[in-house]
Amino acid sequence: MNLTESWKQYLEEIADPENLDVSSFEIQDTLQPDVWKSEEKINQEISARLYEIAKEFFKSLDLDWVTIVDITITGSIANYTWSKYSDIDLHIIIDYNEVDENQELVQNYLRRASSLWNKNHDIFIKGFEVEVYVQDSNESHYSTGVYSVKYDRWDTEPSRVDPKIDYENVQKKAALLMDKIDEVYDIFKEGDYEAALDRADSVRNKIRKFRQSGLETGGAFSVENLAFKLLRRTDYLERLSSLRIQSYDKSMSINGEKI
Q1: What phi, psi does 222 have (nearest 5°)?
Q2: What is the pTM of this model?
Q3: Which of 62, 74, 118, 213 stands 20 to 30 A from 132 (CA)?
Q4: How far apart are CA 29 and CA 79, in angstroms?
C-alpha cells in the first residue's frame, strides 16, 4: 500500500477529528502499579533495566568525555496522569556545553540520534514503550513528576491534583493542527514535493512552539500540550514525519520511480 492509499484509509478511520477521544486525560488514584513499587519508589528491576538502556544508548553516541548528570523518567508514567497511551520517557541529562559550544549543532545532533534510536527500537516495559531523549541540564523542564533512576529518588515528586481541563478547546486545537498536516498531504499528492517539504517543516516547527508555549504557561494540562498528545496518540505526528521524509526523498530524486 502506497502513502496515498494508506493516508486515505487512515483519514476514513479517524473520521471527524472533532470527535477525538479525550477521556484518557484523567487523574489516576495511584501511580502505575506495574511500574511503581510504592508512591516513593520505582520497581527496582525496571529501574535497573532503564538505567542499562540509557547507558547503552549513550555509549553509542561516542561522547566518552561527557558526564551524565542524571538519568530520569518523566511524563505521565511518572505522574498520576498515566494511561494506556503512556510512554516511558527516559531522559539522559548532560551539559550540552561539554559536547560543543555550538548549542544548536549539539541539540540537532542529539535530537536526531535519539529519534533514530527510538525509530529502530521497540522496547516495552510492562506494556509501555521506552522513548530515549538527551536533555540539556540547563534546560527548563515543566513536568510535575521526575524520578532519577540513577540516584533512585524523586527529583520532582508528583501530586494528585484534579486539573481543570478545557476538553472542548483541546479537541478544537488538535483538529486544527490535523487540518494543517492534511494540507501537507494534499500538496504531496499534487506532486509538489519541495513545497510539501517546506510546509511539513513549517507545521512541525509550529507544533513544537505551540506545545512549548503551553508547557511554559499552563503546564502539563495546558490545552496546547494535551492537543499535542492527541496528535501523537492518533499517529498524526508519525504521519507528518513520514510526509517529510518522503517529500525530501522525492524532491531529491531524478526520474526516481522504481523500475
Answers
A1: -65, 155
A2: 0.70
A3: 213
A4: 10
